[in-house]
Every structure is written in C-alpha cells, then in structure tokens.
Amino acid sequence: MKFRDYISDLSDKRVTVIGAGISNKPLIEALLAAGIDTTVSDKRTYDDLGETSRRFESSGAKLKLGDGYLDGLDADVIFRTPGLMPTHPALVEAVKHGTRLTSEMEAFFDVCPCKIIAVTGSDGKTTTTSIIAELLEKQGFNVHTGGNIGRPLLCETDVIGPEDVVVLELSSFQLITMKKSPHIAVYTNLSPNHLDIHADMEEYTGAKRNIYIHQNSTDRLVLNHDNANTRAEAEYAPGKVLFFSCAGKVEEGVYLDGGTIYNVSGGQSEAIMQAEDIFIPGLHNIENFMAAFAAVSGMVSYDIMRETARTFRGVRHRIELVREVDGVRYYNDSIASSPSRTIAGLRAFDEKVILIAGGKDKGVPFDALGDEIIGRVKTLVLTGATAQMIYETVIKSEGYSGKPEIIIRDDFRDAVLAAEQVASEGDVVLLSPACTSFDRFSNFEERGDTFREIVEGM
Question: Which CATH superfamily, name and number, covers 320-456?
C-alpha cells in the first residue's frame, strides 16, 4: 500500500493524533492537507506549542491541549505518541468503544516499500543503528534512517524505492503495539530500564519482543549471545538467528577471539578485522560493531566494514570528546540514561575518571553502578533528583572506604565546574548520568548540549 492510499482510506474517519512532537507533525500535516477530520491532542498548552498550534488550527485541526487533553477521547482512529502507553485508561476506554489504536511507526510498517532493518535494546541502539546506516551507505545503498533518530519517514514513503533500505532505532514504547516486525532485527541487550513507565520487567520484555516475533522464516534476528536475557530470546524467533559475542565463537554470526573479529557462516569462520582498529573506544562499541556486522552480513563487504570501523567517530552525546582543557579531556555521554549504559561508559577508559551523574529516577536500582563507581571513579560529582540515591548506594557498596570522593551540587552548571576544579592534567571528566534528563532538561540532547556549552566556555 502506498502512503497516499493509506491516507485516502482515512478520508471518512474521525482521526485523533496524540502528541504534536517531531514524529507526528508530518502525519498531522498530511491528514489536514487531505481534508480529514483531525483532532490534535497534546498535554502542552496552546502557548507552549506556539506557532505549531496556530499553524494546525489555521489548517483546520481541532485542538485539545493542556490539562484534560485525553478526556473524552472519541475518534475512529487514534495515533498514539510513543510516550503514552496503550494501557492508559483513556486509551483502553476508547478502544473498548471501537476506536482503532495505532501509531506513526505502525503506519510506516504498513506502507514501507523496501527492506527494513531495526535495532532495539536497553543500551547501544543509537550507535548500532548509525553504524548499520553508514555501512550500507558506503556500500552504495540508498539508506533512510528514522525511528528515534533521523527524521520521520512515514510521509516520505512514496519517494522510497523498493531497492532502498530503511534503518530504524525502535524503543520499547514504539514496539509495544507493533504487529509487524522488520526483515532484519537487532536486539543489542536487555536489562531493567524504563520501569518508571512500564508496569514491570515482563511488560518491558514483551514490548521489545515485538521487534522480531512477527518475522517470517526468511527474516533475520541478531542477538547478543553474552547477555543471558537476549540469548534466551532465540527460542521464540520465527526466522534465522545470528549471534554476536565477545566471549568466544558462535555457531552463526560474529564473534571476538584473541583480539580478532570473525564472521562465521555455514560453519566457516572468516576474519573481518582487529578489534583494536575500531576508532571509538570501549568494549561496548566493539559489541555495537559486531551487531552491525551481523545485521549487514552478505550485504556489505569486509573492506567496507573495516573502513567504516576505522573512521566512524561515533554519535553525538555518546562518549563524545568535547574538548581538552589544560590536559583534561571532557567527554559527553549524556545518552547514558541507565546504570548499565554508564557502566559501559566507565569501562571505556583505562584510567579512573571524574564522573558526573544523576538525573530523574527511572525506577532502576543503582547497586551494580555503585560497585563499578568504587573501582573506576576517582571523584564522583552528583546532581539532579537522584543524587542522594546514588550517593547512598555508593557509600553502602562493599569495598567503599571513603573513596571515591563524592561531591553533590544542586545546580548542573555548578556540578560541571566542580568537576573542573578537582581535575588535573591527564584526567578524564565524563558526563554519564545513569538517569533520564527530565528532572531539568527536555531530553538527553539538551543536557549534553548544556554540558558542551559549559565546557567550551571554560
């Protein structure tokens, strides 16, 4: 089905789009351009949305904004924003009365004319997605990147060719209502995450499973063999399973052995490259590259894999070197919104670091992070809503004897400047919060940009 036909099928429907954010704006504009009865619901007020609300209103949209934006939902079709769970009572009630609940991403899967590669996981999604896209582009494919990164693709499907490739990063919030899976699915890892929004770990895991559960026998699933949770997913896979592993050889997939990365297919192993040649640091980035290699195996040459690994400089906000000041290197790892991601960031450095952490609580325990901090952190600077929680976890961790020194600052800027004050030549200062940004910032990008601004002003 083409996108214009999808929109045409909604011509006699009353449609509500919940959320006027980046992913839904093109959809809203397309609905209004087609003359469809469209209501835009958003928890932000008219003034908060500013020009967006005025533009939609002038184009014929009905606006339901601010407090009560979900009251009395009455539509034939509702497009859900990823941040609103389908279990919300207002959505449950609407579905009970006959409303069809969908999303921009579900609609995209209905109309996309080409192969889709999608990546999910608790950590490493964005970097792995970016690597896959770059590998394919260097091989000569016409690549469209979307989902949580790139741009909304739904309204562009009429110009996406059947020989193109779409590469998506998908979160559990997008996947939870998905009824279709990509042709190639990559599942980087699974650990407790977003438990402030998901009802429990079972719901979180079930949402992630939708990335592959609707595949057919010719499709491919790439799993992390070293993560017990993702390794166990293989038994449910309808298609072919490839593993990646840093711990040793796998039957099919990509693995690390003696510093060399191998691809194994049909029982035959072939060397791809030396892991030490990967430009961006950290074992987790070796895993990200192996996952990407497995995803594009048979589509991308080993020469392109090697070239990309040696030149790919990473993604903004992911262990991004911001600047060196007086011999001190400042790294922005604002994407690290979970303890496991911060642990990976700490392990990317041989030396002990000055760590800046803290933010909004996600309901994920910090116990493992506390143990890691004791072994890998020189000075810990805490800020944000979880500062006290992380502090108490660290001082209660086995092996804590007054080190590392712990500094708590209420203001984010003061926290960064406190790290500067204790740093000396040869040190690494790492912003890797282990929490979401929503206590003070609209997203992790804003938090990382603020960190960069402070460091560049030193």
Answer: Mur ligase, C-terminal domain (3.90.190.20)
